[in-house]
Amino acid sequence: MEIFDLIGEHEHEQVVFWNEPAVGYKGIIAIHNTMLGPALGGTRFWNYKSDLEALVDALRLARGMTYKAAVAGLNLGGGKAVIIGDPRTPRREMIFRAHGRAVDSLKGRYITAEDVGTNVEDMDYVHMETEFVAGIGSGSGDPSPVTAFGVYRGIKAAAKQKFGDDSLAGMRVAVQGLGHVGYYLCQNLAKEGAKLVVTDIDPERVQRVANDFDAQPVAAERIYAVDAEIFAPCALGAVVNDQTIPQFKFQVIAGAANNQLAEDRHGDELQKRGILYAPDYVINAGGLINVYGELNEWTSERAMRKAGEIYETLLQLFEITQEQGVPTHVAADKLAERRIHAVGELHRTWL
Question: From CA 317, how far away is CA 147, in angstroms rounded?
Fold first, then answer.
């Protein structure tokens, strides 16, 4: 598919490519929709196989942010940035200062924050070049605890819907991905008495979670076949696909990863199999809520409280799926599109 066809497929407004060869910076910023407000979305630093793969990821993630903000009731649009390179590189200042200049060139149409492969210190470098960044050291900092708490509350809502009780005590939960969000999620789950089965591509992360929360480690490729009630994907996307679905024994899929469905038809397949799916951009909205709170000078307690409301949002969404007989990912899209359309219909008056 041609580049402009890709951009136009889901009506993205703008895509910016920025190159600083002297410092090794290759970045893409995708803005999907700014109907509700400025586009907000994190910056992902990843070693993509190709520039096209990076672009597709940015486009998908930006669209997801539009829907996430809409369902969460925030006055934000959706955007995302990706940096092509090795996220383990130790020399990061100039890369992220170059990225800050790219962000600043959009004059507030896009606001960035942390994502996979980036951290608070990286955003501090970005902040040297632009004011349009959140999650910096002097701000709300790492959004992972808020994201994880929202996912935890979402898992409880899914358990209530599926099992009639939101208690997770004694429940087996398979967690894939033990980065910042995955770790804090395991902490919340363990505190309630859930039995954890965990995996990650980093053995040190696995060992840490196993030691801290008495979790059972498994090899990365075995997580899909684990005998557990709940699967919480917290790594990269597209983990619900033609190869993994036949392995599932799970009754609920609810985790922090973005774009968990490889294709929409996989959401349909989960419904056919009786597996309850908590749409990713609904359950993982806590990070966005945290950043929105920083921009609006909320206290950390208010941001955490707002993330906790993901519980009620998901229960409302599950009601819609039952009433209309549609898969949960379709119901989520309808909720988001309804709010975007309603705001778009508002008339402006001028004094």
Answer: 19
Farthest-apart Cα atoms in the chain, separation: 64
What domains are there in the chain, each with its CATH number?
Answer: 3-65+76-127 (3.40.50.10860), 144-286+296-302+308-337 (3.40.50.720)
Task: Give the DSSP H or E segment for 173.
Answer: strand 172-176
Q: CB neighbours of 18 closer than 8 A, spacing ≥ 6?
A: 25, 26, 27, 28, 29, 98, 99, 101, 102, 105
For the chain, how far is it from start to end, CA to CA, in angstroms? 47
Burial class of 115 by CB neighbour count within 10 A (0 to 12, 13 to 18, 19+): buried
Q: Each residue of 240-249: b (16+ CB within 10 Å) or e? A: beeebbeebe
Catalytic residue among 26, 49, 68, 80: 80
Is 0.90 surpassed by the pTM of this model?
no
80 part of the active site: yes
Reduced to 3 states, what is the DSSP secondary structure of residue 24?
coil
* Across 152-156, 275-279, 332-336, least confident range: 332-336
